[in-house]
Structures are given as C-alpha cells and as structure tokens.
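Predicting structure from sequence has reshaped protein science. With that in mind, we have picked out one protein's residues alongside their backbone shape tokens:
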Amino acid sequence: MSDESPWLVVGLGNPGREYAGNRHNVGFMVADLLASRAGGKFGRAKRAQAEVAEGRLGFGGPKLIMLKPLTYMNLSGAPVVALSQFFKVPVAQVIAVHDELDVPFGQVRAKRGGGEGGHNGLRSMSKSLASKEYARVRFGIGRPPGRQDPADYVLSDFSATERKELDFLVDRAADVVEAIVHEGVEWAQNKYHGV
C-alpha cells in the first residue's frame, strides 16, 4: 500500500435529521468522530453528492478523507467512486463503516472483501467500484426482535439501553479504522475481535 495515497473512509448512512439517530446511520457517527480526531471539518464536496472532511492521523501521519454520501444508502457508490478517483485512492485503501445485522450489538468487526449481506450501501459501493476488495468496519446492531422487519429495524433509532453504550462503541469503531490504516485488517481483527 502506498504511503502517498490517502485513505478514503466511507461512513454509510442516510442524510437528513430524521435519520440521524438510526441504526443505519452509525457510519455517519463514526465518520464524524474520525473527522474530529483527524482535525477535519465536513463540507459539501464539489465533485460528488457527499460531505467530505480531510485530515491526518497524528502529526505527519496518513492522510484520511472522510466521506458521508448524501445520496441515500442505495446509491452510496456513485460519490464513493467519484471521490476515490479524484483523490487517487486505490480500492485497497477504501474503508466502509456500516451497521451489521449479523454481528451482535456491542461488537465491532473488521474484514476485507466478501459479500454485502443484503446491505444496500455495500452493494452500491461494490458495483460502483467494480470490486469487493475494500475494507469494512462492521458495527454490530444485532437482529431485530421478534418479527420486526429488518428494513424497519435499521431505520429505527438505537434503544435507550443501547444509547448508553453507543458513544463507547462509536469510539471503538473509530479505533478499528485507525488500526486498519496503521497496521492492516488482519492486525485490527486480532486486536479487536473477541472484545
């Protein structure tokens, strides 16, 4: 991986105040935290329907571009590919941060490549990038209770009990992103899986 190329961290979510606290918007929450850690401030991108913040991880550290698509989840891929091309980011240095039904709430997982598990934001990214070989930070939200439709569940807010842990977990997900940038996916898996 090139030290010159920046990393593109894609926080997946939906724009608009009504979605802000949704489980599906945890990618935006992590992107916001990373931007503040890296000294970046989100502004509207000229080249894509997205908000973008740029910064560095530590003094002289790797350059990070945080991206929040404003296209709604199903069309996330278009701004991702536009900005990855503009900033010359190889697919290996793209990280998607997203909610994950198949991981229990309270767990954060890292992986590279693989399927999309029915996640429309990932599906759109894979199609637009013509590759599935980007890294993912999977923020566990668990399965919906009872017979609740998963589509309704992801578009509902975290419960009061979950919100007590949410800041800590968003912080951990941001740590996982930084670990991938500094040490790679495998190292991040060894450090953070099982905690």
